[in-house]
Each structure stands twice: as C-alpha cells, then as structure tokens.
Amino acid sequence: MIELYHVWKRYQKASWALSDVSLTIPNGEFCFITGPSGSGKSTLIKTLYREVVPTEGQVIIGGRNILRIPNHKIHRIRRHMGIVFQDFRLLPHKRVFENVAIALRVLGAPPKDLKRKVFIALRMVSLQSKIWDFPTELSYGEQQRVAIARAVVNNPRILLADEPTGNLDPALAHEIFTLFKEINAQGTTVVICTHDRELIRRFGGRVLSLHEGKLRERDAE
Fold first, then answer.
1. Under a CB-based contact definition with an 8 Å cutoff, are residues 151 and 159 in contact?
2. 193 exposed, middle or buried (CB, 10 Å; 0-12, 13-18, 19+)?
3. Which residues make Cβ contacts (< 8 Å) with residue 58, sequence separation at least 6?
C-alpha cells in the first residue's frame, strides 16, 4: 500500500529533514512513526499525501508513484486517504455536519448518500447527537473525534494521523487511539505520528523511529 524508496528532504539550506528513508507499509497495517521533536515525523507523513515533495526518492501509494502525478490530479490519490491533524482544522463557522460532509461534497456525492455517510461516520465516533453543533461548542476530545469522522467518512484505504493526541489529556488520548484501532480492524491502513511512548506501549503495532531524519524499526516495548 505504502512504499518509500531512498527519500531525502531538505528545506532550503537546512540539514536533511529526511535522510535516505526507505520503508514498506502493507495493506491493513497499524503503524506508529515516533521520534523526538524535529526528527522528521511531520515531514514524513506530509510526504505520504504530497503536501511535501521530497528532494530525492520515490513515494508509491497503491502502486502509483505520487511524485509523477500532476498537481491538478493529486486529489484522486487523496480521496483514498483520511488525514487527522493535531490542530483539528475544523471550520469554526460550519456545523459538525458540514465539517464532516465537506470531503463528500468535493467528490460530488448525492445528497441522500452524503447524509447517510456523515451520520454513519459520526455514529462511529459517538457524536451523532452533536451533528448540528458548532466546533466551538465542543470539547477538545469531541473536536478531535469530529476530525476523525471527517477523515473516515469516505471509507479511505489509508488513515494518516499527525500527533493527533498532542492537545489531549491521557484519558482522551486513549479514547482516540481506541478509535484508530477500531478503524484499523475494519481493514484501513493506519499510520500515526506520535511521541507518546505510553500509548505506543499500550496499543502495540509496528513502530518506526526517526532520529535526525534517519529511520529505523524498533519494538513497541
């Protein structure tokens, strides 16, 4: 599903953010990418959905080299991905329904199908009762669950999460990771960037560690 071959990334004259990174993540895997701040975690995950373009190397998603896809067609790859950010990135003046529905609207989903999928996604994260609330009316944990619902509403093959629990307390972080495990159990490949070793230990899975842009695999402890 995900393959990187000799990926390097440098921002202007800075040191290498990624240094000769090669990896393969099979379909249906639950995988952590960990490492200290500045180790290249966010750069790596942004490379997977081509927000960041490597200086060198190849990035293969679903058998296609996404670096060869024209900019105006990259949405065709991203429609098979769900992305969860640390800062939620919800639209504050749109209700929960609209925040989750936005990806489906972009794809031109019929209204009846759109409503059904949004409700299913919100029910998955136990927020169907908040469907007409605004993000500012929700707790941090609820906002993050809305962000997860938005990421999975189109049944993506891949779910990418960049420090998704960085703003949450330990109990809420545990709840969010439980959701990720449930999504993975349905067949979605899940890749999570996190520095939280305790959550990695609790939930298990493959662990890839970055240090100064260099990747190595390690045990979950």
1. yes
2. buried
3. 3, 4, 5, 6, 7, 65, 67
Q: Are 187 and 128 in contact (CB under 8 A)?
A: no
Distance, CA of 107 to CA of 105 (rounded, Å): 5
The pLDDT tens digits of the residues spanning 60-83 come to 998 999 999 999 888 888 888 999
Sign of CA dihedral 90, 96, 100, 102: negative
Radius of gyration of the chain (CA): 17
Give the model confidence (pLDDT) of 156-176 as tens digits. 999 999 988 887 888 888 989
SS3 for the chain is: CEEEEEEEEECCCCCEEEEEEEEEECCCCEEEEECCCCCCHHHHHHHHCCCCCCCEEEEEECCEEHHHCCHHHCHHHHCCEEEEECCCCCCCCCCHHHHHHHHHHHCCCCHHHHHHHHHHHHHHCCCHHHCCCCHHHCCHHHHHHHHHHHHHCCCCCEEEEECCCCCCCHHHHHHHHHHHHHHHHCCCEEEEECCCHHHHHHHCCEEEEEECCEEEEECCC
